Amino acid sequence: MGDKMIKVGVLGATGMVGQRFIQLLDKHPDFEIAALTASSKSAGKRYEDATTWYLDDSMPESVKNIIVSDTKPDDVSNDVEFLFSSLPTETAAIVEPKFAESYYVASNASAMRAEKDVPLVIPEVNPEFLDLIDIQQKNRGWDGFIVTNPNCSTIALTLTLKPIYDNFKINKIYVSTMQAVSGAGYNGVPSMAIVDNLVPYIGDEEEKIESETLHLLGTLNGIDVKEANFKLSASCHRVGIVDGHTEAVFIEFDETIDVDEIKNKMSSFKSIPQELNLYSAPKNPVIVKEEDNRPQPRMDRNANNGMSVTVGRVRKDPIFENNIKYVLVGHNTIRGAAGASILNAELISKKIL
Amino acid sequence: MGDKMIKVGVLGATGMVGQRFIQLLDKHPDFEIAALTASSKSAGKRYEDATTWYLDDSMPESVKNIIVSDTKPDDVSNDVEFLFSSLPTETAAIVEPKFAESYYVASNASAMRAEKDVPLVIPEVNPEFLDLIDIQQKNRGWDGFIVTNPNCSTIALTLTLKPIYDNFKINKIYVSTMQAVSGAGYNGVPSMAIVDNLVPYIGDEEEKIESETLHLLGTLNGIDVKEANFKLSASCHRVGIVDGHTEAVFIEFDETIDVDEIKNKMSSFKSIPQELNLYSAPKNPVIVKEEDNRPQPRMDRNANNGMSVTVGRVRKDPIFENNIKYVLVGHNTIRGAAGASILNAELISKKIL
Amino acid sequence: MGDKMIKVGVLGATGMVGQRFIQLLDKHPDFEIAALTASSKSAGKRYEDATTWYLDDSMPESVKNIIVSDTKPDDVSNDVEFLFSSLPTETAAIVEPKFAESYYVASNASAMRAEKDVPLVIPEVNPEFLDLIDIQQKNRGWDGFIVTNPNCSTIALTLTLKPIYDNFKINKIYVSTMQAVSGAGYNGVPSMAIVDNLVPYIGDEEEKIESETLHLLGTLNGIDVKEANFKLSASCHRVGIVDGHTEAVFIEFDETIDVDEIKNKMSSFKSIPQELNLYSAPKNPVIVKEEDNRPQPRMDRNANNGMSVTVGRVRKDPIFENNIKYVLVGHNTIRGAAGASILNAELISKKIL
Amino acid sequence: MGDKMIKVGVLGATGMVGQRFIQLLDKHPDFEIAALTASSKSAGKRYEDATTWYLDDSMPESVKNIIVSDTKPDDVSNDVEFLFSSLPTETAAIVEPKFAESYYVASNASAMRAEKDVPLVIPEVNPEFLDLIDIQQKNRGWDGFIVTNPNCSTIALTLTLKPIYDNFKINKIYVSTMQAVSGAGYNGVPSMAIVDNLVPYIGDEEEKIESETLHLLGTLNGIDVKEANFKLSASCHRVGIVDGHTEAVFIEFDETIDVDEIKNKMSSFKSIPQELNLYSAPKNPVIVKEEDNRPQPRMDRNANNGMSVTVGRVRKDPIFENNIKYVLVGHNTIRGAAGASILNAELISKKIL
User: Fold this and answer.
1) Is omega for the bond preceding D295 within 30 degrees of 0, making it cis?
2) Other Cβ atoms closer than 10 A to B240
3) Among all residues of chain A, which has the CA nearest to that of C186?
4) What b/e sequence results for C43-74 when a residue is b if at least 16 CB atoms lie within 10 Å of its CB, and e otherwise?
5) How many angstroms separate the CA atoms of B111 and B117, rounded?
6) Rounded distance between C-alpha atoms, residue D178 and residue D180, angstroms
């Protein structure tokens, strides 16, 4: 690709993840926001007029005057290449395939993740799954394509597991999450439910973590993915924190593991996005802290602009000889959502287009 | 014992657990507060003048004018029988044995829990461990004795495990906690550490849960305890909740278990305190909720005056055939501290004295 | 009235204030819940099945099997006397007058407060306004009637002003509130809006405080109310607290005032409900604290079962010679809503019926 | 001054405001951190080893290896020019004058604010008070000097009052604050005091606001300050928010005021720091929001890197004809502390040295 800016759009641009897309794209050196879509009741309005801005930083000046269009392929200009999707699942299921006929869709929605020819990708973990794009285009006769990123909790967990899985024989994993309220959308969690309280249930979350993790660490053979050969069970809980998911991880190995080696593998982990020096790629996808009271969501969620996962308390389990335990924090709406889709698009731009 | 009120005292009466003792003892039908001790700088003052009251209900009128005494056996009246201890560990290690020469000490401190002849007891779980009192008195030549209750997280967990352990073959347990700030004492957790944040570390907590649980579910042979024959690993985290510890529990069994049977065993669980109709004994030590978003600490911590543990999401693990998962909430300063010591004293009064 | 229980109902029984009504009525010695209404989609269901229970204490057993009826006069049994209304404003405007044709309606809704012949009453402040009931019944040809209580912030404020207003010449008042999230209903305030944040706006709240306070402290002449002859300006803010509104009050008097006299008048304040010994009447409507860091919502909201208002920091203004300042806390869904309506009904039962 | 970097130091560098100084100075184009002092127990250690870092962004690399020195003039290198002080009051009272014998001290401590020859300055409000430096140096025979900035709440309030005071005749002000926990230092507010709660008292805060505001808006005659000729009364409250103080302001004028004019004066307000284009000076010291639910601390505290104050709900008081009301949010540890001292130093460097 030359050094011309790539025109991009955001599908579902007024919601919370849509706003993260805009925030992250605003100063992007290669991408330029040229389209913002929302539901028909916002269409035709200036973005500033159509949107209640939820993020701590102000709405970027560059998008205030963009006229929001309806979320329909015909309403989006042809010179847009990538569309970042933060559509609700049901809408995404219907609309994303229509866009994919002519646009490249990098989606944070879960609707299409289960389609065999739609790559579910974390650039540092399974970039080779992007080979499915060819198959997808042939299968479906599309000029565009859809690529998806996993669930927010899965992304953070899998980034920390990748350097372990590549080097040691994992047997079982148990993970217990403490997830931020932003993960449910702006109106998702009433304050009455979370002040001086927590909610020990997040719909479909455990299932996503349990399946997506094994898929991402699996191997692609043609169109088929052979899942990673360990098993994982999750328990998911919502806590009164704005941003940043925390996960307590217990791993059983087949044999005794040296904890320092694990830490070295995690902190030295680099992959294709780091080699290609992609704009949104953090220098270290995984940061290992030695302080015993870290990671903490407010302190660590913004590491490397929210694109690194921070790990701490990596320790040998004193009870189970072949086990280790650790805790991780990842930014759920950056590394776990908008940033994930953007990094996918950056990788595709550099490697495939 | 006749129906005369038993005179009791609280060691460390000005702290948060000390205040819970007072709150729970205030209307007690069998116990009457006759002594309150604190550090020497409070000694000689009226309790009301010596104390910043931290609990939501007001300080009971009955204690306001009690003159606080120094935490020394000679400063406490001889007609006091039971002393409830919420002393800091280091103080407890020195002072409790001195008191035990002539008083009955029911302690929430951890200092003496590891002594082989000091019973560590949850009345519903291992009341027979109180047989150690005889041995303790002989060993040490004491007229009094010390009985202890476990750590707050351990109590809630073990109450839910007891009906399972008695009926099914547990292999392994993983538990991840989300603990309230009151567990660290009034000044234990700065607000800067917990607003929009959590802290994934609580000193010594994991070790206590991992060892005490197996001890409590073990069997007493003379002075020796044979620990329960499964293993347990914990990860402990502090969250911004006033009262009520939440724990996510993963249990591996040796064979496939019927979840409804587990729920039945838990919800129908009754033990000695229920049979003896002890004043502080909850009708059901374990309450099982069917709503998928329960238990929640603010909603469930006060069940049966804070003496029941509430369990929810008891479910077959979809990944591991022989596993179940559930979540529990228990009130950490009532069932997990002051109420635990008081229930111990009630059992001793009824059974032993 | 004899000692037969009075049958009562709750209009809008599944919402948060509806639940408070049920909680407060459950053990009531004179009132017995005989009807619960909700929207038509809940009608016909058992109350337990129709309701997500939001309060910390469990749903009372006594109401679980009551069949919810539609909020229509014909659907409520004739032997019900009092109906407590926690209906949304728009519904209340239409439905309450229909019920009032044959039932006594004690309403927490604001819909009818502005009607000249509908008494707006705090029993300790302006019980004589109940004389309007006669006028109302004649005016409208109703067998029943509607009596209303003010807005939650107004009630707490006015209870503290009454003993001042009766004894000293108030010139101006400024009040700045910090209000709990429960005041907006269960889904009213998203957690994203309030974690590590506050919202400096509550729709219509300032207007209600500014007008209702003067009305309540006014004098009734026939059907006309002559408002109290001072003025009051409010600024209202939402903070991340579950229950309990806090208000900072600045009062300008015409002359210099002795602060101790003010405190005495407030703490010794008693009125008709105390004289009549009404069941829900707190012994002291206003509690004065001397500690400089009180009142606090979590510590003081439940004073006298949530029916007292707690005042602290009553101090001479060091800047304005004729001013005092203080801070108050009142329970917004008990004294400020459900408890207010119930106390109105108790007064009516005792004095009028 | 040439374009050489000015060497600066931070007195009390390990505390929370000390850390803010470091964070703000790290990328500063004119200042270069050359000395960090702390108590003697930290002296001699690397800064990274001496410090528990509290801020959300990581500790800057540039300071990690600086050896902390004791807070004594002899222990700080002579080529340091400015010293930023975040010392505790009692220490500051003793130590700052010693440093001022040879260093320029820009202090956030309150110890010296009351000295008649020590300027208390907000660069946008009363830059001319820096003339006191000459008098101070002569009076005391110092080569260096001390300049101070006001209390955090005062700074935010006074910045919004300056454009009003300069254009309209203010009669009285009432202000009610909702202040973040960071204002009390890392350990200042226990989580038990603030979760689901607030504390209606902050020691000495009301007095500081009431006096400093009038001083800052006053006029300097030689060494004497003639205070602004209105009066102000404050009520201060602590809420569970990490950073960002919110203040509700009621202003009485001598005559009716046009609200739009007030808003224009505030939003167009610029002063010396803007004219001189000082590095830390925000383009607009005061930002006026039109949305009725703003300003909010989490959303607005970081406006212009935390150096602007955001105002909203500027409205005519519907009750008092000559009054306006508004709400403001300012970042208490940036604009209200470290950033204030740095802006003072920038102004001095440009204007005086």
Assistant:
1) yes
2) 30
3) A192
4) beeebeebbebbbbeebbeebeebebbebebe
5) 13
6) 7
Quick one: which H or E segment has residue A261? helix A259-267
Among chain C residues, the shortest Cα distance to A191 is held by: C191
Across the range A291-297, mean pLDDT stands at: 96
- Could you identify the residue written with the tokens 């009062």? C251
Encoded tokens for B125? 């779980």
Cβ C192–A242 below 8 Å, yes or no?
Answer: yes
Q: In chain B, which residues have their Cβ closer than 8 Å to the Cβ of D54?
A: 192
- DSSP class of C312: E
Mean per-residue pLDDT, D271-298: 97
Rounded average pLDDT over C336-345? 98
Order of strands across the sheet that contains B323-330:
B231-238, B170-179, B245-253, B323-330, B309-316, B286-288
Instruction: Out of D152, D215, D236, D331, pick the active-site residue.
Output: D152
Task: Give strand pairing partners of C235.
Answer: C176
Output Rg (C-alpha) for chain B, integer angstroms: 20
Q: Which two tokens stand for residue D334?
A: 């940036």
Encode pLDDT of C36-70 as tens digits. Answer: 999 999 999 999 999 999 998 889 999 999 999 99
CB-CB neighbors (< 8 A) of D196 in chain B: 242
Going by pLDDT thresholds of 50, 70 and 90, the confidence category of residue D353 is confident
Over range C208-225, report the average pLDDT: 97
**Residue pLDDT, tens place only, D46-77:** 999 999 999 988 899 999 999 999 999 999 99
CB C91 within 8 A of CB C80: no
User: B340 with B155: CB under 8 angstroms?
Assistant: yes
Alpha-carbon span D321 to B273, nearest angstrom: 69
B245 is catalytic: yes
Output the CA torsion B117→B123→B124→B128 (10° steps).
40
Which value does ipTM take for this structure? 0.96
Where are chain A's structural domains?
6-151+338-351, 152-331
Fold designation for D6-150+338-351:
Rossmann fold (3.40.50)
Are B82 and B110 in contact by the 8 Å Cβ rule? The answer is no
CB D26 within 8 A of CB D61: no
Phi-psi region of A72 (alpha: psi -120 to 50; beta: other; left: phi over 0): beta
Residue-level length of chain C: 353
Q: Does the pLDDT value for residue A2 go beyond 80?
A: no
Pairing mode, strands C323-330 and C245-253: antiparallel
Confirm whether D6-150+338-351 and D152-331 share one CATH topology: no
**How many residues in total does chain B contain?**
353
Is-contact A263 A288, C-beta < 8 A? yes
CA atoms within 13 A on the CB side of C311: 28
Residues of B in contact with C299 (CB under 8 A): 56
Q: What is the CATH number of domain C152-331?
A: 3.30.360.10
The proportion of chain C whose per-residue pLDDT surpasses 90, expressed as a percent, equals 97
Contact partners of B by the rule of 3+ C-beta pairs under 8 A? A, C, D
Quick one: how far is CA C278 from the chain centroid?
16
Classify domain C6-151+338-351 at the CATH class level: alpha beta
Mean pLDDT of B29-57: 95
Q: How far apart are CA A341 and CA A334, in angstroms?
A: 9
Residues 6+ apart with CB under 8 A from A350: A1, A276, A278
- Mark A293-307 as b/e (b = at least 16 C-beta within 10 Å): bbbbbbbbbbbbebb
Q: Which of C30, C59, C24, C86 is nearest to C305 (CA)?
A: C24
pLDDT given for residue C3 in this prediction:
64
D233, C172: Cβ pair inside 8 Å?
no
Strand ranges of the sheet holding B31-38, from the earlier edge strand across to the other edge: B69-70, B31-38, B6-11, B82-85, B104-107, B145-148
